[in-house]
Amino acid sequence: MNMRDEIQMRNEAFRLATAAGDALALAALYTEDAWFLPQGSAEIQGRRAIERLWQERLKRIAEVKLSTIDVALLGNDHAREVGHFIVRTKAGGPDVMGKYLVVWQRIAGEWYLAADAVNSSA
Fold first, then answer.
1. CA-to-CA dists, residue 14 to 75, 80, 122, angstroms
2. CA 15 – CA 63 distance, rounded (Å)
3. DSSP state of 1
4. To 10 degrees, the CA torsion angle through 51, 56, 59, 64?
5. pLDDT in tens, 10-40
6. Phi/psi at 109 (nearest 5 deg)?
7. What is the mean pLDDT of residues 79-90?
8. What does each C-alpha distance from 21 to 26, 30, 103, 110, 120 come to in angstroms?
9. Hey, where are the domains in the chain?
10. 43 — pLDDT class (breaks 50, 70, 90)
11. Which pLDDT tens digit goes with each residue over 50-79?
């Protein structure tokens, strides 16, 4: 399996964890010292802090769809992904659309989010 396919599998795990409302499973996709840079909020560092953020956000989020535009290998154990997202809310309001930039890190053969930056298109 190639790197892009491996990252696509991790993105599918992200989608499934979001749909299940499982903040612990989402946080497990990040490295222990990962950075998350949400729009309109302060940056967050660390898997536990990211889990807490997702616990709050999943109260309002029904589903997140990710669409990869490009993936590039950065050395042996890092990759960069650029893509679009669509967030469907539980309240049934308009979808939130935007873009993301992720730095992936391969640890023991698995890809983890090391840095995750999102920005809505609105």
1. 24, 17, 23
2. 7
3. -
4. -60
5. 999 999 999 999 999 999 999 999 999 999 8
6. 85, 0
7. 96
8. 9, 16, 24, 23, 21
9. 3-120
10. very high
11. 999 999 999 999 999 999 999 999 999 999
Q: What is the CATH number of domain 3-120?
A: 3.10.450.50
φ and ψ at residue 107, rounded to 5 degrees = -125, 120
Percent of the chain exceeding pLDDT 70 equals 99
Length of the chain: 122
Q: CA-CA distance, 54 to 20, in Å (whole number)?
A: 12
Which position has the token pair 């698995």?
110
Rounded CA separation 6/40 (Å): 30
| Sheet order of strands, 78-89 included | 44-45, 30-37, 110-120, 96-107, 78-89, 61-73
- Find tokens 């650029």 and name the residue: 82
Q: What is the 3-class SS of 21-86, one letter each residue? A: CCHHHHHCCEEEEEEEECCCCCCEECHHHHHHHHHHHCCCEEEEEEEEEEEEECCCCEEEEEEEEE
